[in-house]
Amino acid sequence: MSPVRRCSRTACGRPAVATLTYVYADSTAVLGPLATYAEPHCYDLCAEHSERLTAPRGWEVVRLLDSSAPARPSGDDLEALANAVREAARPQERAAQAGGGGGGGRGADPMEVARRGHLRVLRSPDN
Fold it and tell me: Are 27 and 60 in contact, with CB atoms under 8 Å apart?
């Protein structure tokens, strides 16, 4: 079974992006973000089918998500990503400046042989 949920419409194999639920007591169709897990009386829809959704006459459609426009990263998101990339690059620069002496001068873990970014090479416990 595929971990990606597919559109509930017949013969549509596109990935689902929204969940449709009917509230029969209020004659309302609610289209919202993709539910955490599939429920028996809800329908998962792809972007195309969620955009073209219409309700029966006399029913109201409530859209909790504008699935036609993908979410754009904000300026804060982009700045946080840039800062994370800069921070990840710093240990490599320091190791290159220090000559990369095999981890002996770090004083951290005696099992550590070498380090590259956030990855470490460790000695086997048998040695």
Answer: yes
